[in-house]
Amino acid sequence: MSDCIFCKIAGGDIPSATLYEDDDFRVILDLGPATKGHALILPKHHYANLYEIPEEMAAKAMVLAKKMATAMTEALGCDGFNIVQNNGEVAGQTVFHFHMHLIPRYNGDQAGI
Ligand code: 5GP
Ligand code: ZN
Q: From the CA of 26, which ligand is nearest?
């Protein structure tokens, strides 16, 4: 989708702080982090939400989320981890390109997830 900011970021047309990239996904740091290291998994193909993403891609995204959470916990020394995925305005979705939030949690942080 030509007017989608996450399509442009995932495709590399807009530079981003990239933690990981493969043929299907790019993982970037969130512009407005809830905690240190808050990142987003973006598929390179445009799907608006969980309802649109094919099961195979959703499964790949979840496997990647597990790998990223494990590596980030090791790298950051965080105490826990939230994986959040919003669908629809009422659920807090603000960018309508499927994404998963990777949110490291630290003892005593005040993140209102
Ligand atoms: P949502 O509310 O849709 O689940 O999450 C959207 C997330 O994308 C927010 O946490 C917001 O900070 C982040 N975000 C919005 N625009 C940009 C951007 O241009 N670059 C990056 N890195 N993050 C963005
Ligand atoms: Zn998109």
A: 1
Q: Is 101 a catalytic residue?
A: no
Residue 31: pLDDT over 90: yes
In CATH, the architecture of 5-105 is: 2-Layer Sandwich (3.30)
Backbone angles phi, psi at 87, to 5 degrees: -130, 115
Alpha helices of the chain — where are they, by DSSP H?
5-10, 55-76
Find the catalytic residue in 38, 46, 97, 99: 99
Residues 6+ apart with CB under 8 A from 93: 49, 86, 87
What is the structure's pLDDT at 93? Answer: 98
Cβ burial of 106 (10 Å; 0-12, 13-18, 19+) is middle
